[in-house]
Amino acid sequence: MIRRFITLFCLAAIATAASAQTKLNGAGATFPYPMYSKWFSEYHNQHSDVEINYQSIGSGGGIRQVLAGTVDFGASDGPMTDAQLADAKTKIYHIPTVLGAVVPAYNIPGAKGEIKFTPATLAGIFLGRITSWNDAALAKDNPGMNLPNVPIVVVHRSDGSGTTYVFTDYLSKVSSDWQSGPGKGTSVKWPLGLGAKGNEGVAGMIRQMEGSIGYIELIYAEQNKIAFGTVKNAAGQFVKASLGSTTAAAASAKMPSDYRVSITNAPGKDSYPIASFTWLLIPAHNADANKQKIIVDFLNWMVTEGQKMTSQLTYAPLPAEVAAKVKATIAQLK
Amino acid sequence: MNSPHLKMPSFSHSVRDEAAGSKVFPTKPASLITSGSGNSMDQLFRGALLLSAVSVLAIVVLIVSQLYLQSRLSIHQFGWSFFKGQNWDPVAGDFGALPFIFGTLVSSMLALAIAVPLGVGVAIFMNEMCPRPLRNVFSYLVELLAAIPSVIYGLWGIFVLVPLMRQFIEPFLAKHFGWTGLFTGPMYGIGMLPASVILAIMIVPFISSITREVMLAVPSPQREAALALGATRWEMLRIGVLRNARVGIMGGIVLALGRALGETMAVTMLIGNRAEIAKSLFAPGYTMASVIANEFSEATENLYLSALVEIGLALFLVTVIVNIFAQGLIWSITRGNTARSH
Predict the structure, then answer these.
(1) One domain for residues A155 and A42
(2) Domain B81-338, architecture per CATH
(3) CA gap B189, A210 in Å, rounded
């Protein structure tokens, strides 16, 4: 009996030693966390000797950690600034992974159908210039819609977030008053409104409060069946956010070689205008060459096999031409 | 190995013998009187206690120095105007902490104003009036309030308190007390008032538990004397019990205040997170703890981070100042009365 235990114990010890796992650590953006966590576990299933830990501590934290060199890779919903890149000890590559869209969600008593928003009405509402749902500007874009005389309650994120970055980046592009006023960032000084924590906080507040409007991730709105409007894009079309229109926006944007591109207000008649890439931040050199090899292998898997898994989690996949370009970039990492 | 006295060699013996390079085990039975181990154990105990006491001091010093070091950039940039500034604009890189200090103080004070009468009332009821079988149930329920995680309070606040506020309480207050200017403006159900109410509920158990204990400690001759002088029940409570217990009750209030100043999660879910100083309690506000929790994870600019850390430093300073003030208040209330409190 005892001997059998000893044998088992030895076997177990050998097994652990044999599968000496390589552990990679990453940290950053919360928005793509469900996708990354699926990818990392799937990759682990295929390569049992590799374990990738990812902590969704926020894009800001991801950038800080990768600059400090405490993680093997970072992740961010907004591209790093030139100043941040200049701070880095080694070159940091931005690798786009998936796309997200941000939608204007609302709760208007008695309104049926989708409300159409133009850049002017969206900026007007969030600047506090349009204060009632029956405002003439809104009524003009939504003929036949019974918009009530209810005051608009603006809800925004209270926590710093990539969602806020994308939404304010869009408003800055379409409204000069917004650009010179609140500007763009993960947290901005909102001209008015209530702050709620997280997508779930904003969605919860919208649901409860009649006349409210806020911005949330497309995935969140779809999964929780929250009403959201269409937005007029740069080509003058009212487009509803979907995986297709988000990928279309990415395909129509001009891609720079470092991938640090904003695809809000993208050209093309099918493009949804409030969309963004999310990036993995990969240092060009890792002290452990073996780790870098694994990262490269993972990235190659991510842009090919991994992209096939995106739609089941309602993330928009990279357009084919971007994926091809990313593959070429990954080759430089070796 | 099996001689009985070897099973309990004193610590000091072994150490001393090892140090002397002689035998590891003592040959004589260890005895308190002969070996002097009691004395050295005392020394050891003394050292351990000193270490614990010093560690508290060291932690405070470390926290303050770390907060200071991390916020130097912001302190250098804004100086004292950081505490006076009302603008919080991460995009423009302009930071002022006044709305957060205001929000923290107002929400905590308002919470105290609600929770102190409630907590003391609960304690009086449980100690003096509650039928004995119900007392345990009540006491259990009140203590349960202290055990509920604050995120649960926040969720309850969003789903129950906020609609209640918006539909009934705020319209009522606006109608009857709107003239004060404290209850005006749009009624969101989210804002300073609901945040203070949730804080009040969270700190009631602190006040009531401590008040109960202190009231129990009041010697019963005090009550009997008051009753013998013809006091009514209320007068007996007021003169015989509460008057004597007030130092302890104040202590409980200070503890509750500490909790209210630092509470983050439930407050941030209900306060509306708006860095503005508004007179109306219906308006959204912001607290120091909330802004740190909200914005720290996504802050990338050095100055922004530094300003957030300085908010932490400000919170620390405000807590210290409020505590000193409360101690002063206790001292001024109890001056010359300490003999009667026990």
Answers:
(1) no
(2) Orthogonal Bundle (1.10)
(3) 12
Residues A183 and A308 in one domain: no
A244 and A108 housed in the same domain: yes
Nearest to A187 among B162, B269, B295 (CB): B295
Q: Which of B160, B167, B298, B301 to mutate to test the interface with A (most CBs of A within 10 A)?
A: B298
Chain A residues touching residue B166 (CB < 8 angstroms): 209
What residues of B are in contact with residue A187 (Cβ under 8 Å)?
A: 90, 294-295, 298-299
Residues A215 and A154 in one domain: yes
* Pair of tokens at residue B134: 């119900």
What pLDDT was estimated at residue B342?
41
The residue from A251, A284, A314 where one domain ends is A251
In a domain, A127, yes or no: yes
Q: Are B281 and B69 in contact (CB under 8 A)?
A: no
The answer on A116 and A95 residing in a single domain is no
- What is the pTM assigned to this prediction? 0.81
Contact list in B for residue A204 (CB cut-off 8 A) is 158
Distance from C-alpha of B295 to C-alpha of A195, rounded to nearest angstrom: 12
Three-class SS state of A292: helix
Domain that holds residue A170: 101-251
Q: Please judge whether A201 and B269 are an interchain contact, meaning their C-beta atoms are less than 8 angstroms apart.
A: yes
The pLDDT-based confidence of B29 (bands split at 50, 70, 90) is low
The two three-digit tokens of residue A107, written as one number: 């709760």
Distance from the Cα of residue A48 to its chain's centroid: 29
Tally the domains of chain A.
2
pLDDT in tens, B168-223: 999 999 989 988 888 988 888 899 999 999 999 999 999 999 999 899 888 888 88
In the structure encoding, which two tokens stand for residue A301, read together? 């898997």
pLDDT of B26 above 60: no
Q: Quickly list H helices, chain B.
A: 11-20, 32-35, 37-70, 72-78, 81-84, 98-124, 132-147, 150-156, 162-164, 170-177, 192-217, 220-228, 233-235, 243-262, 265-270, 288-295, 302-334
Q: Does the residue A13 lie in any domain?
A: no
- The CA distance from A42 to A35, in Å, is 11
A187: CATH: 3.40.190.10
**pLDDT score for B27:** 54
**Angstroms from B149 CA to nearest CA on chain A:** 17
- My answer on whether A111 and A228 are in the same domain is yes
In terms of Cα–Cα distance, which of B304, B282, B291, B283 is closest to B264? Answer: B291
Q: Name the CA dihedral angle for A103, A105, A111, A113, rounded to a multiple of 10 degrees.
A: 30
Shared domain for A281 and A155, answered yes or no, is no
For chain A, the 3-state helix, strand and coil shares in percent, each to the nearest 5, are 45, 20, 35
C-alpha to C-alpha distance for A76 and A28, rounded to whole angstroms: 6
CA distance A83 to A67: 12
Contacts of residue A285, defined as CB under 8 A and 6 or more positions apart, other chains included, come to: A90, A91, A292
Which chain B residues contact residue A208 at CB under 8 A? Answer: 158, 162-163, 189
User: Does some domain include residue A10?
Assistant: no
Mean pLDDT to the nearest integer, B243-255: 87
Q: What is the ipTM of this complex?
A: 0.78
Distance from CA of B90 to the nearest CA of A (A): 6
Q: Is there a contact between A162 and B300 (Cβ–Cβ < 8 Å)?
A: no
- Burial string for B80-107 (b: 16+ CB within 10 Å, else e) reads eebeeeeebbbbeeebbbbbbbbbbbbb
Q: Is residue A261 part of a domain?
A: no
**Rounded CA separation A101/A166 (Å):** 8
The answer to whether residues A195 and A304 belong to one domain is no
